[in-house]
């Protein structure tokens, strides 16, 4: 986005939270299932294990 950071934090983020598209967690922000449905995307499998840096964990 070409919006200033404070506009995102003060205007856009609260709107997304209010609409149920975004959730604040201790680890950051998360898209909700509602947001994925709205975007027509499949919700990723969220396990309790930490996500790998590059997606699928591969033994090197």
**Overall average residue pLDDT:** 81
CATH architecture of the domain at 5-39: Orthogonal Bundle
SSE topology string: HEEH
Helix/strand-derived category reads alpha+beta
How many helices? The count is 2
Beta-strand content bin: 5-15%
> How far is the N terminus from the C terminus?
36 Å
The CATH class of the domain at 5-39: Mainly Alpha
Q: What composes the largest sheet? A: 2 strands, antiparallel
Radius of gyration: 14 Å
Total beta strands: 2
Unreliable parts: none
Assign a percent range to the helix content: 25-40%
CATH topology of the domain at 5-39: Arc Repressor Mutant, subunit A
Q: What order do the strands of the largest sheet run in, or round the barrel if closed?
A: 1-2
What coarse outline follows from CA principal-axis ratios?
Answer: globular
The CATH superfamily name of the domain at 5-39 is: Winged helix-like DNA-binding domain superfamily/Winged helix DNA-binding domain
List its traits.
60 residues; alpha+beta; Arc Repressor Mutant, subunit A; two-stranded antiparallel ribbon; globular
Describe the structure.
This protein has a domain at 5-39: Orthogonal Bundle (Arc Repressor Mutant, subunit A), CATH 1.10.10. The mean pLDDT is 81. Strand 1 and strand 2 (28-31) form a beta hairpin. It has helices spanning 5-19, 33-39, and strands at residues 22-25, 28-31. The chain has a two-stranded antiparallel sheet with strand order 1-2. By secondary structure, it is of the alpha+beta class. The chain is 37% helix and 13% strand. The termini are far apart.
